[in-house]
Write a structure and sequence with these properties.
Shape: elongated
Structural class: alpha+beta
Helix content: over 70%
Distance between the termini: 69 Å
Strand content: 5-15%
Order of helices and strands: HHHHEHEEHEHHHHH
Number of strands: 4
Radius of gyration: 29 Å
């Protein structure tokens, strides 16, 4: 019994020692000068490289647009019974053959349901060059061939191929327009709110950081060839909301530090460094917990969920990066110009009044 207690105490001491050592290392890290403004030319390099690669790939390949934006058809193949993985793979091979034989190359297949509700969802984009009437005829042909190939002798009693949904080109165009409008309105309203709640320099730098996150998410889907559907727009708006929250926390601390008398002599760059350090632990904990949760869902989730979560996962990383490394330095540049203008106006006013002019080196803005 005493030996067990002794081993437990030793293990506890090792854990405490490890935690204490890590805490000391973290405190030493925070004690260093970040020089975020001075090193901005280096921290902006990684996003610029990613965007350049994405631009080149976009020029060559474009976006991998899904049927929500290109138009297409959703069919539901009902089996009326449970199907094993081996049976699904066999049916999947047959369905792929039918689609390819009819000139359909862009499609997705997804197993749905179980027991008596087992089915396969077949989604495919419109064939380039075909009119709406021709696509309707093609859909009927595909439905007929699927029935003939999978259930030629009616061995599967409850087998059926149902029309799920037909998305026309006009509907997909309207969806894209509304999606861009929603993102634009969200960004403008955020700019107005931050400009009123904090100041114009904070609003502009926050929006630039948001554009950084949006562009990097688009770059990610271009480079990884992830299909863009309406779920991507939802992911985009999710990241905009999440990223602006981190950025506002930092700007709130910047505002507090600007008001402190002990910090009046500090430069904008020093204020940014102090503010980021003050909020870094909160930003780190929030981002890590969210990223781990989303990563686990992306690993164990089905492909449809994965298409939604992977852009969010990359957006979380981009949003955290922009909050720490991008927004602060940009605020410093913009605020310095605004501060210099206000300083110049006050000096000119003092010269006009000629009443107890304030020395230029004593003026605090």
């Amino acid at each position: 019994m005493e030996q067990k207690k002794s081993k437990k105490n030793k293990s506890q001491k090792k854990q405490n020692k490890f935690i204490s050592a890590m805490s000391q290392k973290y405190n030493n890290f925070l004690a260093k000068d970040f020089n975020l403004v001075k090193n901005f030319k280096y921290t902006i390099l990684a996003p610029v490289v990613i965007l350049l690669v994405a631009v080149i790939m976009f020029a060559c390949l474009g976006f991998n647009l899904g049927l929500d934006f290109t138009g297409g058809t959703i069919l539901k193949v009902n089996f009326g019974t449970d199907i094993s993985n081996a049976e699904y793979n066999a049916y999947k091979t047959t369905l792929e053959k039918v689609l390819k034989d009819n000139g359909i190359t862009k499609y997705t297949l997804q197993k749905e349901g179980s027991t008596t509700d087992a089915s396969v969802s077949v989604k495919f984009q419109d064939v380039s060059g075909k009119t709406e009437a021709q696509m309707n005829d093609l859909v009927e042909t595909v439905k007929k061939e699927i029935s003939e190939q999978i259930n030629p002798n009616n061995e599967i009693s409850n087998f059926s191929v149902e029309d799920g949904q037909r998305i026309g080109a006009s509907a997909s165009s309207s969806l894209l327009t509304n999606a861009l409008l929603a993102v634009s309105i969200a960004i403008v309203l955020m700019l107005i709110y931050i400009a009123i709640r904090f100041e114009f320099a904070s609003g502009v730098s926050a929006i630039i950081a948001l554009l950084h996150d949006v562009l990097l998410m688009c770059a990610f889907v271009v480079i990884c060839r992830i299909q863009i559907n309406s779920s991507f727009i939802a992911a985009l708006i999710t990241i905009i909301g999440y990223s602006i929250n981190n950025t506002i926390v930092i700007f709130d601390r910047v505002r507090e530090n600007l008001r402190r008398e002990s910090y009046q002599a500090k430069t904008n760059a020093e204020i940014v460094d102090i503010s980021v350090k003050d909020t870094l632990t909160r930003t780190f904990y929030t981002s890590i917990t969210t990223i781990v949760s989303v990563l686990l869902l992306a690993i164990i989730g089905v492909s449809a969920i994965r298409e939604f979560l992977l852009p969010i996962l990359f957006g979380l990383v981009a949003g955290t990066y922009s909050s720490v490394f991008i927004s602060g330095p940009i605020w410093s540049f913009i605020y310095k110009k605004d501060k210099d203008k206000r300083l110049k106006k006050r000096i000119e006013q003092d010269k006009k009044d000629k009443k107890n002019p304030i020395p230029e080196d004593k003026i605090v803005v």
